[in-house]
Amino acid sequence: MAKYDNSFTDELRARLSLVDVISRRVSLVKKGNNYWGCCPFHNEKTPSFSISEEKGYYHCFGCGEHGDIISFVMKTENVDFKTAIKELADLAGLKLPEVKQKTSEQIELEQTYIKITDDAAKIYQDLLYTESGKDALDYIKKRGFSDEMIKKYRIGYAPKNNIISSKFSDIKKEKLISTGLVREGDYGLYDFFRHKLMFPIFNAHNQIVAFSGRSLDGTEPKYINTTDTELFHKRQTIFGFNFAREAIHQKNRSIIVEGQIDAIQMQNHGFPETVAPLGTALTEDHIAILCKSNRNIIFCFDGDNAGKKAATRACNLVLPFLRDKSDVKFAFVTGGKDPDEILKTSGESAMKKIIDNALSLIDFLWKITNENYSISTPAGRSQAEKFLKESLSKITDKIFQNEIEQDFNSRKFNEWHNWKLKKYEQEIEVPDIDNNMIKNIQSIIQTYPELAEKYVDFLTSLKINFDEEVQKTNLSLKDAENSIISIQIKRNLDTLLLKQKELTNKLLLNNDVSIKKELDNLNLEIEKTKKYLEILINND
Predict the structure, then answer these.
(1) Looking only at Cα atoms, what is the longest distance across the chain?
(2) Helices 284-293 & 6-15 angle (0-180, nearest 10)
(3) What are the residues whose beta carbons fall under 8 Å from the beta carbon of 289, sequence distance 6 or more?
């Protein structure tokens, strides 16, 4: 059987949700942390087929079938390993690599790598509580970190000298360099991290694979991270995910903040489901990993322009991952503060209020559209329309996409055209339409908001309250539009008839040739309007 590099199959499992893949074939219901459905491998009426997204496997308590995302595709579609991998790769949008197995040298190198990074973390931890680490310890204590928190996150101190280069002198330099902890210069190996407060970076299996070092002397950048290695890829690593994974399942959501200190403080003050990107902008890979655990995400950013830009980018990234059961929101910390400061100065209740008041994705997308485009002008509305259309096109669930589009159409109708402030001036008073016709028009517009855009001037003239909730119409879009046109023509005909009556009276009082000519032209227009209305009614 063909085998692929473990890193590729691991990436498949990280990118794809086991629940999403299985739910294409099995109807699932969430109970507790797991999903349940009727087993696809044997006939049953009572669901005994359990899926654990966190652990990455399914198990049937009826027939004993057990496996992961790859074996599920193999068994349900009766295909071999290679075919299953190809199908999953296509689903994840990944290029299929060449078939290869890890060599014993690669396996040994990975084991050495993990041992070096773990031993380095122990060295840094011990140094934090020495005289040389005093500045680092004072700083982290001032940031509100307790000894228990320091121990849990294995925070340490990298000294000014080359401690790692000397401590691991018995390790082959190629292996040591591969961890990113040291580099080679003209005079031999030297430490990459020096005089830094050290935050270990864990993979999903709680193994330390890299480090993030914070400057202690005010130099920029504030943080430097291990460069990408064989076992560490910054764009695919989420800080704090190993600690937050269980809480994400229990809380049924994840919270994303901008920095690692924010993430740690949130995790230890009532929000254990919090994570952060690692010294880089949020990526599609980050979203894919989180959505594999849970598609309910709250993005929590600073309320300044940079935070708004980051939120807009996050919105664009998350759109392809939306499902009708997704609950994505955006929270903003204002006043030049971050979550860490809010927690220290105002406590958990203030942070909870910020999270609870988060904007839904639909509200946020609508908000940035109105802020970025001049919707008071036709050109601005056109640009805004294009932006919304492009954004919604990224949603792969077309039914869900259509529902959101209908929501936006309704908002455009009620907000962009400012119905209640518009005036329709006419020289001749036209009889008001009856209540049944009003209800009919309200029903049509609430069902097909796009017709409001098309007949905006006419609908404004009716002075109807379109905010009133009414039952949606059963008419098709074509019939609904014809109904609007019919009402418009009838109303126009009423106007013409009133004008006809006025001109006839004038002609009786003053036999003026110009009035007669105007009346003759008006009579022709009335006949044309009647014929057009008759054709429209007959076509119905």
Answers:
(1) 119
(2) 70
(3) 14, 15, 236, 238, 241
* pLDDT tens track for 254-275: 999 988 999 999 999 999 999 9
SS3 track for 300-328: EEECCHHHHHHHHHHHHHHHHHCCCCCEE
29's enclosing H/E stretch is strand 29-31
Structure tokens at 494: 């009423």
With a CB cutoff of 8 Å and minimum separation 6, the contacts of 505 are none
In order of 74, 104, 250, 273, 286, the CA distances from 246 in angstroms are 29, 33, 6, 8, 17
DSSP code at position 429: P
Provide the CA 384 distance to its chain's centre, in angstroms: 20
> Distance between alpha carbon 228 and the CA centroid of its chain, in Å?
26
- Nearest alpha-carbon partner for 257 in 370, 144, 343, 157: 343
How many angstroms separate the first and last alpha carbons of the chain? 65
Strands, sheet with 327-333, edge to edge from the N-terminal-most edge strand: 238-239, 274-277, 254-256, 296-302, 327-333, 359-360
Question: Which residues contact residue 147 at a Cβ distance below 8 angstroms, ignoring those fewer than 6 apart?
Answer: none
pLDDT at position 91, please?
81
| Sign of the dihedral defined by the CA atoms of residues 259, 261, 267, 271, in that order | negative
**Of 40, 60, 64, which Cα lies nearest the Cα of 50?**
60
Residue 46 DSSP symbol: S
Cα separation, 66 vs 70, whole angstroms: 11
Confidence (pLDDT) at 280: 62
pLDDT tens readout for residues 309-330: 889 999 999 999 888 778 999 9
pTM for this prediction: 0.64
- Considering just the CA atoms, what is the radius of gyration of the chain in Å? 33
Q: Where do the DSSP E strands lie in 169-294?
A: 182-185, 188-191, 196-202, 208-215, 223-225, 238-239, 254-256, 274-277
Mark 306-334 as b/e (b = at least 16 C-beta within 10 Å). Answer: ebbebbbebbebbbbbbeeebebbbbbbe
Pairing of strands 223-225, 274-277: unpaired
d(CA 66, CA 347): 45
What is the C-alpha to C-alpha distance for residues 66 and 267, in angstroms, rounded to an integer?
33
- In the predicted model, what is the mean pLDDT of residues 494-505? 81
CA distance 467 to 12: 48
């654990």: which residue's tokens? 52
DSSP single-letter state for residue 171: S
30: phi then psi, degrees, rounded to nearest 5: -85, 130
